[in-house]
Write a structure and sequence with these properties.
This protein is mainly α. It has helices at residues 5-12, 19-30, 39-50, 54-67, 69-83, 87-100, 107-113, 119-131, 138-148, 154-169, 180-187, 193-213, 245-248, 265-277, 283-288, 309-317, 322-327, 332-346, 350-363, 369-384, 392-400, 407-419, 425-442, 447-460, 462-478, 483-489; strands at residues 219-223, 235-239. The protein has a two-stranded antiparallel sheet with strand order 1-2. It comes from Acorus calamus (Sweet flag).
């Protein structure tokens, strides 16, 4: 049959043959040595133009792409010229062409395809450009992406935003994307949740690129606010030339909400994740994000670029309570990401860290282990940069975490305790030691980690360690035979036994 295929392809693929036979013919032809200039290629192209079965069309297109990429290009151009193949054929042909020519450099065809009436084709072109990006091709792709951000179909708008985000990742000069900001802000209120999410991601990627490049331009604390059914709020330092006051401040009569209150879980997740990646946010905006009540400017501090009067008040108030909404979200994934972002911003502002800690302490009682663990990891990040100031009212709650049923939670809590500066050490030094002793009795398998924590607490609070050593020693000896006494002195009062288990 292999020898008969080249000369009989028209007959074997004719509508008179059943589907199974035609599929078998295409499969066999794929393993045959068909010549690009043979009649087989023309037979396949004729078959594609009349076939309706998607699977058979896909097989035939793959075979054509293997034989001749120019033939596929010709097929697409003929369709654009008015031969009107089905939309599926055009999309499948383009996908097959991209599969054998990556990156695809036929500029004329790309420009033609990006204006195709077929949604799948436009999306394919943008996806291909995104996956084969090169900063040297920016002059070609940037106008395409910007134009497609206004496409009537969500999948195309999303692909355009993803393409721009990919451009930022390869380090394109921000001056070459003039106009992106205003269009991205418009998509913050898009009806499609995936478009809104992509817009947040693109702006976040852009802000990170600008921060990384340390652009020498005037910067602006920017709250992207759009009144709409589902409004979005993101903030960060961005160049002033991209900031449009009519975009930031629109129809004051309408109710303003933010991404923290978006109806889509995906958008909220992406937004809080993006907030954690922005490092140049002013303290004024950060502090306001922890309170639903308008705080104004503390201690005479003023964020650069906020303007004066109503404009300044609007920008600051638009960030009100962002993180509170995140920590109170009904989905634990959002709460976890909000905790993570809080920890990341806490390293830049001591005042923000203090205010954030009041909220994070409540998260230690969260029903989900992932949220509790992330809260402790954020606290550890704060302690590592000396921004963890735990108050006495929080200590009992924190020490209670040492008894958590989860090994991961207990270990994370001890890591924080090792770096923590105890409040009222004359009171809480003893409580901390007693909590660890109780911890050892309950979880003897954690003894190595517990003794390591005891060492660091004593090292960090040396005066109190010396003060209470005698008192503790007396208590230890009173408990001769107990777990702690044997761990410290050995079974017979000799070498310490760090691996003793309670019988």
């Amino acid at each position: 049959m292999d020898k008969l295929i080249p000369n009989n392809l028209d007959h074997l693929l004719s509508p008179s043959m059943d589907r199974r036979r035609r599929l078998q013919t295409l499969t066999t032809a794929s393993s045959s040595r068909l010549l690009p200039n043979s009649s087989s290629l023309q037979s396949l192209l004729r078959f594609i133009s009349v076939e309706k079965d998607p699977l058979l069309i896909r097989r035939a297109l793959r075979l054509v792409s293997r034989l001749s990429s120019p033939a596929l290009r010709s097929l697409l151009l003929r369709n654009r010229a008015g031969e009107n193949f089905s939309p599926r054929i055009e999309a499948e042909a383009l996908a097959a062409l991209f599969s054998v020519s990556s990156p695809f450099d036929d500029v004329d065809l790309l420009l033609s395809m990006v204006s195709s009436p077929v949604v799948a084709v436009r999306s394919l072109v943008l996806d291909h450009l995104s996956s084969t990006l090169d900063a040297r091709r920016a002059d070609l792709v940037v106008p395409l992406f910007l134009d497609c951000m206004a496409d009537p179909y969500p999948s195309v708008r999303r692909a355009a935003l993803d393409g721009l985000a990919a451009l930022f990742a390869v380090g394109i000069d921000e001056a070459r994307i003039e106009g992106f900001y205003d269009r991205a802000v418009e998509l913050f209120r898009d009806r499609d949740e995936f478009v809104r999410s992509a817009a947040v991601g693109a702006v976040s990627q852009w802000a990170q690129m600008i921060e990384a490049n340390e652009v020498e331009v005037e910067r602006l604390d920017l709250a992207f606010v759009q009144p709409a059914m589902n409004n979005v709020l993101a903030f960060g330092y961005l160049p002033i030339r991209y900031a449009s006051k009519p975009t930031m401040i629109n129809q004051k009569e309408e109710k303003i909400s933010s991404v923290a209150r978006d109806t889509s879980v995906k958008v909220r997740l992406d937004a809080f994740s993006a907030l954690g990646k922005l490092h140049l946010v002013s303290e004024v905006i950060l502090l306001q994000s922890l309170s639903k009540k308008f705080l104004g400017v503390r201690n005479g501090k003023k964020a650069p670029g906020l303007g004066n009067g109503k404009e300044s008040k609007f920008i600051v108030s638009s960030a009100a309570g962002i993180f509170i909404h995140g920590l109170e979200d009904e989905f634990y994934e959002v709460r976890r990401v909000a905790c993570d972002s809080l920890g990341k911003h806490s390293i830049f502002s001591l005042q923000f860290a203090d205010d954030a800690l009041n909220l994070m302490m409540d998260m230690l009682n969260d029903d989900t282990m992932a949220v509790r663990l992330q809260t402790l990891e954020s606290m550890f990040r704060m302690a590592s940069c000396d921004h963890l100031n735990v108050q006495g009212k929080h200590m009992h709650m924190f020490l209670g975490v040492l008894a958590d049923i989860s090994t991961q939670i207990r270990h994370a809590a001890r890591k924080v305790l090792r770096l923590m500066k105890l409040p009222e050490p004359d009171v809480f030094f003893r409580f901390s030691i007693e909590s660890l002793v109780t911890n050892l009795e309950t979880y003897p398998e954690d003894e190595e980690d517990i003794f390591c924590t005891l060492f660091y607490i004593s090292k960090n609070h040396g005066n109190f360690a010396v003060k209470y050593t005698k008192e503790f020693t007396e208590e230890f000896h009173q408990g001769v035979g107990g777990v702690l006494w044997r761990c410290l002195h050995g079974r017979d009062g000799g070498r310490p036994d760090l691996h003793v288990k309670e019988s």
